[in-house]
Design brief:
Order of helices and strands: HEEHEEEEHEHEHEEHEHHE
Number of domains: 1
Oligomer: single chain
Number of strands: 12
Strand content: 15-25%
Helix content: 25-40%
CATH superfamily: Alpha/Beta hydrolase fold, catalytic domain
Largest sheet: 12 strands, mixed
CATH architecture: 3-Layer(aba) Sandwich
CATH class: Alpha Beta
Radius of gyration: 19 Å
Number of helices: 8
């Protein structure tokens, strides 16, 4: 990942946020103070057995949830695409794919509202990686009972045109997507009507997407108070965003890092983890490179990693699901499951609190 983003571009974030606030709502899902959302027709996914009966989750339920993780199976998963308009200026709209729990009704998958509302997870992809590269992980979260959304950011996803410096705009765009999805959950006409719990919102991101998610969760430049939990997958702090990290209210944090990553080196994740005050968890993937633990068909530096790839992905899928179950859905017993999932000899180790594994070097592009 090329990290030479000019610090001067940080000012663009403030400007974009100001413009976003002036854009009026329109069409089928209205976002107060932001921009219109267009919904496509739902696209059904492969059916899985629905989970056992479980009380509808809400903000109050999350606070008073039982200490043990609820016993349940998996949801069916259906998808839709949301187009979130961006402010004027030539930028493309954000096509945001959404995966949501579904149920089979007369041979057709429809939104499962019997267990709603569900926690919302918004995922940001890495540079020059399509959202579809992460579809297995995103579907895993949705099948576990989350509404999962992933925007395709302009200028940083294939086929291009590509410009990694455009990352400077992404925190404001991620906040726009959050607002749009929360609002859509309140709109009777939208596919997500009644599905989204606005009190249970989590962010996750890989590589550049991890940088963006971290900025929105824990940087004064771009903080969004709706975020209640964060998973950073091989990400970093980025000085070009401006602001300061971890100086305000902090959310529970899961950092995931491959020990052999040469793109976002372990020092980047160590910096994030050591500066955070907690609750915090560090999943160290032993010998993993930059893409192998998260995407289905990694290439480049990941050649030859196939024997461990499936093991890494299983660990990441289970640990991240458990983390969000505990910190968003209130299933505190899931923390024990997360710790067990993250302790696989030769594959992964899980650290709870304390400091990240000792690592040499520094993180390019991060604050000193």
């Amino acid at each position: 990942m090329r990290r030479q983003v000019a610090v001067a571009l940080a000012a663009m974030v403030a400007a974009l946020v100001t413009v976003v606030a002036l854009v009026t709502a329109a069409r089928s899902a209205t976002v107060a103070g932001s921009s219109p959302v267009t919904w496509s027709s739902p696209v059904t996914g492969s059916a899985r057995a629905p989970r056992s009966a479980q009380a509808a989750r809400s903000a109050q339920a999350a606070l008073s949830a039982p200490s043990e993780r609820p016993t349940r199976g998996l949801f069916a998963v259906a998808t839709t695409v949301v187009e979130v308009a961006l402010p004027a200026g030539g930028r493309r709209a954000l096509d945001t794919e959404v995966w949501y729990p579904a149920t089979n009704r007369s041979g057709r998958l429809v939104p499962d509202r019997s267990h709603a509302p569900y926690p919302l997870l918004v995922f940001s992809q890495g540079y020059d990686l399509a959202v579809s590269a992460y579809s297995s992980l995103l579907r895993h979260w949705a099948a576990a009972g989350f509404v999962v959304a992933a925007p395709t950011y302009p200028y940083t996803a294939p086929p291009g045109p590509l410009d990694e410096a455009d990352i400077i705009n992404h925190p404001a765009e991620l906040r726009l997507v959050l607002s749009a999805l929360i609002s859509a959950g309140r709109q009777h006409s939208s596919v997500l009507s009644g599905l989204v719990n606005a009190a249970e919102v989590g962010l996750a991101g890989h590589s550049d997407g991890g940088d963006v998610s971290l900025a929105v969760a824990d940087n004064t430049c771009c903080h969004d108070p709706s975020v209640k939990a964060l998973a950073v997958l091989s990400g970093a702090e980025l000085s070009s965003f401006g602001g300061t990290y971890f100086s305000g209210p902090q959310v529970p944090l899961l950092v995931v890092q491959g020990s052999a990553d040469t793109v976002n080196v372990p020092a980047c994740s160590a910096q994030i983890y050591d500066e955070a005050k907690g609750p915090k968890y560090y999943l160290d993937l032993i010998g993993a490179s930059h893409e192998v633990p998260y995407v289905e068909h990694p290439g480049g530096e990941n050649a030859g990693k196939a024997p461990l790839a499936a093991s890494y992905r299983r660990v990441v899928a289970q640990a991240t699901t458990d983390f969000f179950e505990a910190e968003l859905a209130g299933a505190r017993g899931a923390l024990g499951s997360m710790e067990r999932a993250g302790k696989v000899p030769g594959v992964a180790q899980m650290i709870v609190g304390g400091q990240a594994p000792v690592t040499a070097g520094w993180c390019p592009g991060s604050p000193a």
